[in-house]
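Re: flavin-adenine dinucleotide structure - here you go.
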Amino acid sequence: GEAARLYRPGEDPLTVLEAGTVRRALLNSSAAWVLQFYSSSCGHCIGFAPTWRALAGDVRDWEPAIRIGVLDCGEEENYETCKEYGILYYPTFRYFKAFTKQFTTGENYKAGSDRELQTVRQMMIDFLQNHSQESRPPACPPLDPIPSSEIASLFDKTSHHYTAIVVESSNSYVGREVILDLIQYENIMVKRVLNSDKAFLEKLGITSIPSCYLIYPNGSHGLINILKPLRSFFSSYLKSLPGVRRKLVSQLPLPKKQSKQEGTEIKAWKEFDKAKLYMADLESGLHYLLRVELATHKTLEGAELKTFKDFVTVLSKLFPGRQPVVKLLETLQEWLVSLPLDKIPYDAILDLVNNKMRISGIFLTNHIQWVGCQGSKPELRGYTCSLWKLFHTLTVQAAVRPKALINTGFEDNPQVVLQIMRRYIQHFFGCKACAQHFEEMAKESMESVKTLDKAVLWLWEKHNVVNDRLAGDPSEDPKFPKVQWPTPDLCPECHDEIKGLHSWNEVQVLQFLKHHYHHENILYKYAE
Ligand code: FAD
């Protein structure tokens, strides 16, 4: 339906957690967990979802020992929870050991940039092995290699199960993967032996690794013959041995809900005019920025605090808002300037924004109402769209009302909005990879911006670079394809052709931007 999410409970082989279930699921769990905290509106999360789903399918049999979960931090009802877990960027991967007794925010376990399926699978194994003896999930057999002498002692003795021995090098994960693949099967035990005892290997006739040696229940033994020495070949061979079958385990408990209904409400489509700017988008974006994105930072200090202060200063002077919102920004700015602290708990800021100011009628909407930033699905567009619009609006405001910045220390700086945007994106924007791309562009050419008009054009040009890069990306809303903007229907004069090649008329583009992002082009429809 409309409310389709990146991951579907019951359909994807992973556990979809939410505010009401996550703590209970993790606390005192008999299995370890790997959680992906994502945001349904983050392009990289969308792009990564197929990999994560594939991983979950690949290690589905490991569930009694280690489980895969997801939590959508882009869902309003999960905002608070993601804050508690200290999630600053999406996607964030956290590992949780089995049998934790108290709330923990989990471990950024060997959080590398490499998110290859195979690497994550190996990290899961390392993580399992990092459990203490007592806290190891009961469903997880020992994963360390056993001495070859132990194997020999099993030969020619009857037993009620098969013993499979994966012989491999010390850096191979195949043995451990096969062990875990078989944990839900009965009448078989899988062990691993390292290839260090050459004489022993020779005796067993093992000439290549990895290999799998099998001891039958009657005590006879021999090397198994497999087409390719791969995990999947070993596992499926062992699963299909006569007498080996899946244990009848009671279904793993699904996390119980503490509250809240299934799914999200489907919002009715709001008609809008794409030639206009909607205050509802700007205010919703500001709400999200102040109460959600920034609020994931527990305290602000150093460069972050400076960035926040400067940003609020510029907003209070340039945001073309309604009286209560401008008043809120001004009050916040004065408060920040008056504080002698070099470290501010973000809760103090939230308290000011949410409670203190309300009393005097100073108020910013506290729910989200996308209009020009609506997506055809809930995970598309929204906040990032509003952030672009906010910064375009600020560059235009700086250019059409340069006097507004007098006495701020920014009055003679044509790059003021761009620099603040750059710092904001760098320190606070939840999409880390976006921030990296943006930083690269800034490094390359932001310095060359010498006038406020050029700043308007710089941001326009860079936004089009991003549009070009994202065209066809999974984060693209099919209803709002990534195109070079403004399109000819919005601004025919902006487009020229020189010797058969498209070219922008920058004089016209500047004029168009100054009109489009001007306060007189703002509509208040749908703004509460
Ligand atoms: P958006 O690109 O968000 O644009 C919003 C609105 O701005 C458009 O509807 C249009 O009215 C107007 N607009 C469009 N182009 C221009 C322009 N050139 N000049 C002025 N106005 C314009 N997502 C990723 O997946 N990967 C990234 O690397 C990435 N980097 C980002 C960097 C930044 C700084 C930001 C703010 C966002 C980034 N995003 C990235 C998100 C992405 O750019 C979009 O915001 C998101 O995909 C939603 O797209 P949208 O269709 O709402 O249009």
